[in-house]
Amino acid sequence: MMRCAMQIITNNEQETGFEAQKLAKTLKNGDVLCLSGDLGAGKTVFAREIIRFLIQNEAQEVPSPTFTLVQTYETPQFPVFHYDLYRLETPEDIYELGWEDSLASGVCIIEWPSRADGLIPKPYKMVQLEMVENCPEARKITVKDIT
Ligand code: ADP
Ligand code: MG
Questions:
Q1: What span, in angstroms and rounded, lies between the C-alpha atoms of 116 and 95?
Q2: Are 63 and 72 in contact (CB under 8 A)?
Q3: Which of 9, 89, 109, 110 has its CA 20 to 30 A from that of 117?
Q4: In a 3-state reduction of DSSP, which class is residue 15?
Q5: CB 138 less than 6 A from any atom of ligand 1
Q6: Which atom of ligand 1 is nearest to the CA of 12?
Q7: How far does the centroid of ligand 2 lie from the alpha carbon of residue 112, in Å?
Q8: More confident residue, 118 or 106
Q9: What is d(CA 7, CA 126) in angstroms, rounded to the nearest whole number?
Q10: Contacts of 112 (CB under 8 A, 6+ apart)
Q11: 46 CA distance to ligand 2 centroid (A)?
């Protein structure tokens, strides 16, 4: 089942960061958040602002896990596991990335969730980021609860 919880247009990266912070406030241990959208849509920007909010440090470095596939962060409340599955060769390879431990022990934020094809347990939140025609600095953000 899919329920559309929210849809908004942001006009720049800062506004996207603000939406990410709002969502971060609602996160609880065990939550799974998927970020979908094309290359450059803003998935890493969105994940970065969530992590900075949870760590309470605006200067926290949050590199894209393009090559490491997962980066772990300690926050006062729970660990956060930031995945980028773009380079995952087969969905099952996710189990080599501490996947089950991540699900059991913290919050998972997942870029390119489609690469894990069906291995992401429901319920989870899906954030879709899309470009807006003729507005290079704008993004359409849709948040859905997948149950
Ligand atoms: P992805 O992880 O989806 O490949 P990134 O988050 O790495 O994308 O990059 C998004 C790029 O788009 C950044 O360079 C960012 O500055 C730019 N950008 C422009 N407008 C926006 C916006 N409204 N929201 C988010 N990012 C934006
Ligand atoms: Mg990215």
A1: 10
A2: no
A3: 9
A4: helix
A5: yes
A6: 23
A7: 8
A8: 106
A9: 12
A10: 36, 43, 84, 85, 86, 88
A11: 9
Taking only the tens place, the pLDDT of each residue in 8-49 is 999 999 999 999 999 999 999 999 999 999 999 999 999 999
Residue 115, C-beta contacts closer than 8 angstroms, at least 6 positions apart: 85, 86, 88, 91
**Is residue 1's pLDDT more than 80?**
no
Residue 56 has pLDDT above 90, yes or no: yes
Q: Is the pLDDT higher at 5 or at 137?
A: 137
Is 42 a pocket residue for ligand 1 (Cβ < 6 Å)? yes
- pTM check: above 0.85: yes
> Ligand 1 mean position to 141 CA, how many Å?
12
- What is the model's pLDDT at position 127? 98
DSSP 8-state secondary structure symbol assigned to residue 57? -
On average, the pLDDT of the chain sits at 96
DSSP string, 18-42: HHHHHHHTT--TT-EEEEE-STTSS
| Complete edge-to-edge strand list for the sheet that includes strand 135-146 | 2-10, 135-146, 124-132, 32-36, 107-111, 79-84, 70-74
